[in-house]
């Protein structure tokens, strides 16, 4: 018996995963995987490549549902991307996530094609070409057409698919790290995973030293963003940050506090948005998006089953709270409104109630993978093409969730400010 215990401990130690031991952790992982699987069902369940990737990087699978979801990615997501490409939009982030999702299912990427200017182009050729355009844009205006998060995703997807990333393309990311052209734990994490892949591939030979410096720079930034409670950045960037640290060679022990912070958040249901779950789950499995590189899809577990759940009817609360809504348009002249809403309403519901009062307040939103993104307020659009957006804050503190996820529990002032980024 004693020797069995010793062998088990030695095996755990040798596999470098000393934290993978407690049973409560595997229960949590299972319930998060089930939540992700459930999010794909129903009418709102648009195919989501990030969710697919997270399910495929998990240890337990429902192979039938994953395969059905792969088909939906190849049809619905493919069509969405095709439409954007036909409208000459840069979609490097989505192309990259689509690539990573297909790769995580060991799908032959060469069979995926798009129609570009009446010619057929493979997914990877299109991604490579769009990355060249992003690189040209950086050369001219010091920023990508999209953002550095998506630029990093593009590098990561090409690299993990075995495509040699053009030195000029990776150099732009290295320079952006060097000159701090982007901030935020999420973007640093994605850049870290991308550059680590480039380093491992051995293709970046010209400026190998600069690449190493950029990676240690990113690691320092991530560790500097670590708070006393273990979060890196905020609760929604910690998963990606841990993925990056693990990919960059950190030991699990070095991330233990951050992993514990994620688990605590998960148990208190902070990650009800499937996108949030999709970014933390690989980290809880001690994996990163880089892990798709070595995915074989053989002898996979197929035990993840969804039990039917009783629909929960949430009755609106009887007690009401007052929300003051301040709108600061680009002219700077603020308009202030007030509305009473049932306690626990989402900000989206509060805005709908306010709109219904016909006091001159209107708004529109666009759907995104994270949920509804507030795009127009009082007829004024804060457009990504103009690098503007409606920034949301509550009593002066920036919201860390979108309009559908943020819940109104107490009276407060919500400010929406047309902001440039
Ligand atoms: C870049 C970015 C932005 C840019 C996007 C525009 C651009 N072209 O650069 C800007 C600055 C506009 C932005 C705004 C906001 N963001 Co933001 N953003 C990101 C980031 C770093 C990358 C997104 C991306 O490009 N993904 C890749 C592409 C392929 O995926 P996508 O889904 O198509 O991306 C689009 C949407 O995600 C949308 N988007 C961006 N942020 C948000 C936030 C919400 C709530 C929604 C619904 C949509 C949305 O814009 C993306 C580009 O078109 C993520 C980090 C992450 N971990 O995901 C945070 C992130 C998604 N953002 C976040 C937040 C909180 C916000 C704001 C609510 C902040 C605020 N206080 O106002 C606002 C949204 C307000 C609104 N009007 O509804 C959180 C969301 C957490 C959550 N639980 O919901 C994240 C995870 C960052 C974090 N760690 O806190 N964001």
Describe what this molecule looks like in 3D.
The protein has 421 residues and is α+β, with helices and mostly antiparallel strands. It is built from 14 helices and twelve strands. The chain has helices at 2-14, 23-39, 49-56, 63-86, 92-104, 123-141, 148-160, 167-178, 185-201, 208-224, 238-247, 256-267, 274-284, 347-356; strands at 113-116, 119-122, 320-328, 335-342, 345-346, 363-368, 371-377, 380-381, 388-394, 397-398, 407-408, 412-420. Helix 5 (92-104) runs parallel beside helix 7 (148-160), helix 7 runs parallel beside helix 9 and helix 8 (167-178) packs across helix 9. The structure holds cobalamin (B12). Cobalamin (B12) binds at residues 93-94, 97, 146-147, 149-150, 184, 186-187, 233-234, 236-237, 240, 273, 276, 279, 368-374, 384, 389-392, 398-403, 405, 421.
In short:
With 421 residues, the protein is α+β, with helices and mostly antiparallel strands. It contains 14 helices and twelve strands.
- Quote the average pLDDT: 92
* Separation of the first and last Cα atoms: 61 Å
Specify the number of helices.
14
Side-by-side strand order of the widest sheet: 4-3-12-9-10
Q: What's the CATH architecture name of the largest domain?
A: Alpha/alpha barrel
CATH class of the largest domain: Mainly Alpha
Low-confidence stretches: 1-22
Instruction: Assign an overall shape.
Output: globular
Secondary-structure class: alpha+beta
Task: Estimate the strand proportion.
Answer: 5-15%
In the CATH hierarchy, the third-tier topology of the largest domain is known as Glycosyltransferase
Count of domain modules: 2
What is the chain-wise order of helices and strands? HHHHHEEHHHHHHHHEEEHEEEEEEE
Give a count of the beta strands, DSSP E runs of length 2 or more.
Answer: 12
Q: What percent of residues adopt helix (DSSP H or I)? A: 40-55%
Biggest β-sheet: count, sense, barrel?
A: 5 strands, mixed
